[in-house]
Design brief:
The complex is a heterodimer.
Chain A: H1 2-5, H2 9-12, H3 20-52, H4 68-100, E1 107-114, E2 117-121, E3 127-128, E4 131-134, E5 139-145, E6 150-154, E7 159-163, E8 169-173, E9 179-185, E10 191-192, E11 207-208, E12 214-219, H5 221-230, H6 237-247, E13 273-275, E14 281-283, H7 286-294, H8 319-331
Parallel strand pairs in A: 1-5, 4-12
Antiparallel strand pairs in A: 1-2, 2-3, 5-8, 6-7, 6-9, 9-12, 10-11, 13-14
Chain B: H1 31-34, H2 39-67, H3 78-113, H4 122-144, H5 158-161, H6 166-193, H7 206-238, H8 251-285, H9 292-305, H10 321-349, H11 358-381, H12 383-389, H13 393-423, H14 429-455, H15 470-500, H16 545-550
Helix pairs in contact in B: 2-3, 2-4, 2-15, 3-6, 3-7, 3-8, 3-13, 4-6, 6-7, 7-8, 7-9, 8-9, 8-10, 8-11, 8-13, 9-10, 10-11, 11-13, 11-14, 13-14, 14-15
């Protein structure tokens, strides 16, 4: 393990895929080698002195005497580190300012975080749960959270920023190579492994902070444009609904095969009457689904605890998208 | 100070015991332990409770590591995992590390070192112990009534919306804070007013300087924690909007409040560890710590700087660039007093007489591990690099190198160093050294793996992870087993000495430290008569090697 630590940059840091990465890596390695030098000096001196002056017959500690040399040494190692720390601080702050100020020509992508999904909305108004960005273009993310704290983190880009409920935060980067990178939530946001009755779900259905991960796909500008074009709705309405079911993370809680999840399944439920938590019966028709999407707490199916963990999709889903989801639910017959 | 001549008011109860008997034997039965006002008995009771907390926190740590041994579910489900890592953090911070050295070892040794019969307010001292117990019971009750899954940091708005027992845990933390404040208050007053004849500020043992610095932080910072968790409880219980934006609050405000206490708390944890290392190094090199005055002042400057750097926990939270710049600059200043301490300790070995006892091995490991902990702090203080490393395992490894590699090594050094003094028994060196070796190796395996996976991008507090991180998690978990085994060996070594250990001579290490110039174990009132000190605690040049074991010769009293 120790020897491995001495290996080059590529062992300690992930691949560099943004314009920030080389400068940050360079500074990281500077601090790393500085630390290695200090560590070896301190521990080297410690081991050398400890062995050389070890307790043994015929060896006695020398009486401590006050010396001007020691006073000077004390002043030296109090003052000297400032000259190492100051450049580090300066370089770190300069890099941080670069991260903070996005160029004016950046493509803006709207990011919404919620327990436990990402939504990336592009300038054309369409959205996805995977982040596509064009290579060698400046991209600025404008981010907000719908519930608790989250953080946007792409190790390959060396960027991280918290998503704070009640305010916008932003981050920018310029990808420098095409390819794919992991995207993480880095601020703890809870998790769930039991359904609302308290029974444990199968591990594949556990959901939480650790599963709030996605991908960044860095496309060529042509591929990126093609991706945006293909986002416009095509095909039958229920297919569009199926796509939204996956993209908008409905899939996280609602199953479509009739099995029990954190929330009711969608299979074979449309148009039928169901028992609600308050004892009433309700028919799952168009209005029921619409209401549940926009105001998840309005009606809760019996057996699922209130308040619902589902976030509201008010302002997130357009009318035609709700229509598509309803069409998709209708298609899921027993 | 005249206070030492007068009978101490709080000691009326103890007057039935023989003041010249060992504190362990002066009175018998469980009752005299439970309502004792003796700082030594209170210190010992603290040590028992703290060790149990360390055991509980350690078991949670091992379970968390075991869960992460393989991808997906290994032993526990996700909700349980979130509760376990929260309990690990909360127990270790609030029930173990913060009280460990001050309330346990500090309580026992600070009055002896300053030449007093007890702390300034013995009754408050007893209360501080019982408040600790009440706080511990309330915190741990939360485990029974639903546990907590917020992380020990209780970040809002998750902490005000989760269904778990946050109110109980935070109320426990609220209560525990008062225990810490009372201990701090007691130490400050004791050091100012009860130093014995001849113990000037410049003759105070560095352990006392460390305790004094710590006490200042405890008294000044802990009330802020109480305010913070009180506000959190009001939001949770009464729906008062302070932190939750849905109620008109500001979640980042909570982080400011929380770290305004919890960063200084880092120094409540590490400064006492450093204080022990200074004592142990002096004894086992037969040399005064190089730069005594610089050492004392560096403790005070760490205490002061600790109040000014809380923002460095929030570099990605959306603070203004100006605040970020200030917090980064101030953070770098922390490196200076930390560096001074490490350089002084290393220089102390020079021309000394280095005796490799178990406490000394822990002290040397402290220098080794704390250097790594400190140097990796440079990465995190550097703004642009911190953005990448924040909230990854790099941070987890960094603060474990400081908290465990620093404070826990200091605590273990102190436990072995003072064990004969406290119990009157010698422990067996050989198994203690085997245990030390396993602790040292296991610790490094556990956390070096975490540094690497962290800088490669593994976020913290993840129940599951991507395949590229698997080898590091495996190595880290295996390291935790070695570490756990080492700690078990140490515990068994110490405990078995109570039954089988040889009787300790008064000064088994031949230390010049003041506390070793008294009976072992100490008398009920610490001294037959209050000693007059004529020398500093590290003046080895004033005694022959034989004197060191037989009793340090005191010269003619003279002021400094």
């Amino acid at each position: 393990m120790k020897l491995a630590m001495l290996a080059p940059t590529s062992f300690q840091l992930p691949e560099a895929m943004s314009s920030f990465a080389p400068t940050i890596d360079d500074l990281y390695m500077k601090i790393y080698w500085l630390s290695v030098v200090f560590f070896v000096a301190i521990v080297g001196a410690m081991v050398y002195f400890a062995v050389k002056y070890r307790k043994r017959a015929g060896h006695k500690a020398e009486a401590a005497t006050h010396s001007v040399f020691m006073d000077r040494l004390e002043v030296f190692w109090t003052v000297a580190p400032i000259f190492i720390l100051l450049p580090l601080f300066h370089e770190g702050f300069r890099g941080y300012m670069d991260l903070s100020v996005a160029p004016a020509d950046s493509i803006e992508i709207r990011v919404r975080g919620a327990q436990w999904r990402w939504e990336f909305e592009y300038p054309n108004g369409e959205s996805d749960n995977v982040l596509h960005v064009p290579v060698n273009k400046n991209v600025k993310l404008i981010m907000s959270s719908e519930d608790v704290l989250h953080a946007f983190f792409v190790p390959e880009f060396r960027v991280k920023k918290d998503l704070v409920p009640g305010m916008y935060s932003s981050v920018w980067f310029r990808p420098t190579v095409t390819g794919e990178a992991d995207l993480f939530c880095a601020e703890y946001c809870g998790g769930k492994s039991k359904d609302n009755t308290g029974a444990e779900l199968p591990p594949a259905q556990f959901n939480g902070h650790w599963s709030m991960i996605s991908k960044v796909k860095i496309d060529t500008p042509e591929a990126f444009d093609k991706y945006l074009d293909n986002m416009a709705p095509v095909g039958p309405l229920e297919e569009r609904g199926r796509a939204l079911y996956l993209k908008k993370a409905c899939v996280g809680c609602h199953t479509i095969d009739g099995s029990k999840g954190v929330a009711p399944t969608w299979k074979g439920v449309f148009g039928k009457s169901h028992k609600m938590a308050d004892g009433t019966d309700a028919v799952m028709d168009e209005n029921y689904v619409r209401e549940s999407i926009l105001n998840p707490n309005a009606k809760i199916v019996a057996g699922y605890t209130a308040p619902s963990v589902m976030p509201t999709y008010q302002g997130t889903l357009k009318e035609k998208e709700i229509d598509a989801i309803i069409a998709f639910m209708k298609s899921l017959k027993e | 100070m005249s206070a030492v001549d007068k009978p101490i008011a709080g000691h009326v109860d103890d007057s039935h015991g023989d003041p010249n008997a060992s504190y362990l034997e002066a009175k018998h039965g469980i009752g005299p332990w439970l309502y004792t006002l003796d700082h030594k008995r209170i210190g010992l009771m603290y040590l028992v409770m703290i060790s149990l907390a360390f055991l509980a926190g350690g078991i949670f740590a091992l379970l968390v590591r075991l869960e992460l041994f393989t991808r997906g579910k290994t032993i526990i489900d996700a909700e349980t995992y979130n509760k376990f890592f929260t309990l690990h953090g909360a127990i270790m911070v609030f029930l173990f590390i913060i009280p460990s050295i001050p309330a346990g070892l500090g309580n026992f040794f600070l009055p002896i070192m300053v030449g007093a019969k007890d702390v300034a307010f013995p009754r408050l001292n007893m209360w501080s112990f019982y408040i600790y117990l009440i706080g511990a019971v309330i915190s741990l009750a939360s485990i029974v009534i639903g546990s907590v899954d917020t992380g020990w940091t209780f970040y809002t708005p998750y902490s005000t919306t989760t269904a778990t027992a946050v109110a109980s845990m935070t109320f426990g933390v609220f209560v525990l804070g008062f225990s810490s404040i009372l201990t701090g208050l007691n130490f400050i007053v004791t050091v100012h007013t009860m130093r014995g004849p001849g113990i000037t500020w410049r003759r105070l043992p560095l352990f006392v300087w460390g305790m004094y610095s710590t006490a200042l932080i405890q008294v000044l910072a802990t009330p802020v924690l109480a305010i913070t968790v009180a506000l959190l409880m009001m939001e949770r219980v009464f729906g008062l909007g302070i932190f939750n934006p849905k109620l008109g609050g500001d979640p980042v405000l909570f982080q400011h409040f929380f770290w305004f206490y919890s960063h200084p708390a880092v120094y409540i944890m590490i400064v006492p560890g450093m204080a022990i290392i200074s004592e142990v190094l002096a004894t086992f090199t037969r040399r005064p710590i190089v730069g005594y005055f610089a050492g004392a002042m560096s403790s005070l400057s760490l205490a002061l700087l600790g109040f000014l750097v809380w923002g460095h926990h929030m570099f990605t939270a959306g603070m203004s660039e100006f605040s970020t710049m200030l917090f980064s600059a101030l953070t770098f200043l922390v490196a200076i007093p930390s560096g001074v301490k490490v350089f002084n300790w290393t220089a102390t070995l020079y021309k000394g007489e280095v005796w490799f006892t178990t406490p000394m091995l822990y002290a040397l490991s402290f220098i080794f591990l704390f250097s790594i902990g400190g140097l990796t702090g440079l990465f995190l203080g550097t703004l642009s690099v911190d953005v990448h490393l924040h909230d990854t395992y790099f941070v987890v490894a960094h603060f474990h190198y400081v908290m465990m590699g620093g404070t826990v090594m200091g605590f273990l050094a102190g436990m072995f160093y003072w064990w004969p003094k406290m119990t009157g028994k010698l422990y067996n060196e050989t198994p203690a050294k085997v245990g030390w070796f396993l602790v040292f190796v296991g610790f490094n395996v556990t956390f070096i793996a975490q540094f690497i996976m962290g800088s490669r991008g593994m976020p913290r507090r993840y129940y599951d992870y991507l395949p590229q991180f698997e080898p590091f998690h495996k190595a880290s978990t295996i390291g935790s087993w070695i570490l756990g085994l080492g700690l078990i060996i140490e515990a068994v070594t110490l405990l078995s000495s109570l039954k089988n250990g040889k009787k300790s001579p008064p000064n088994p290490w031949g230390s010049a430290g003041y506390e070793w110039q008294t009976a072992t174990p100490p008398l009920l009132f610490n001294f037959k008569e209050i000693p007059v000190r004529t020398r500093g605690p590290y003046d080895y040049h004033l005694a022959t090697p034989e004197d060191l074991y037989d009793g340090f010769p005191e010269g003619e009293p003279h002021g400094d």
